[in-house]
Amino acid sequence: xxxxxxxxxxxxxxxxxxxxxxxxxxxxxxxxxxxxxxxxxxxxxxxxxxxxxxxxxxxxxxxxxxxxxxxxxxxxxxxxxxxxxxxxxxxxxxxxxxxxxxxxxxxxxxxxxxxxxxxxxxxxxxxxxxxxxxxxxxxxxxxxxx
Length: 146
Fold this sequence. Notes:
Blueprint: H1 3-17, E1 24-26, E2 50-70, E3 72-90, H2 92-97, E4 99-105, E5 107-109, E6 115-117, E7 120-124, E8 127-132, E9 141-145
Antiparallel strand pairs: 1-3, 2-3, 2-4, 2-7, 4-9, 5-6, 7-8
């Protein structure tokens, strides 16, 4: 992925997905080894809403830029592997039209020595709903929760 393409993707995602009031309570964004342990009880849903646990994962080794939204939002350098887990509370309207969560990882050195996008996964309530190996698809991971 070229730098220009990554910049365009970042700009598009930040302008389209970063607005509004935060709806998620998330962990501190530390590497996977330091992520929080699962909670034994889920928070109560808002009136007319639903609650989902969302996990964003980026694989690989080293450090890369990671842009994410839906479980908080951010664009920062992270140590890989990286995991962010949070609870998203959907309103009745969001259950109808959907609530977008995404993660766009930067590049890592692949097994062949060439740069490629880091692989990513999105899980909702423990079920894997989106993935990208960073080779066949270099668009990151995106999923609409309903």
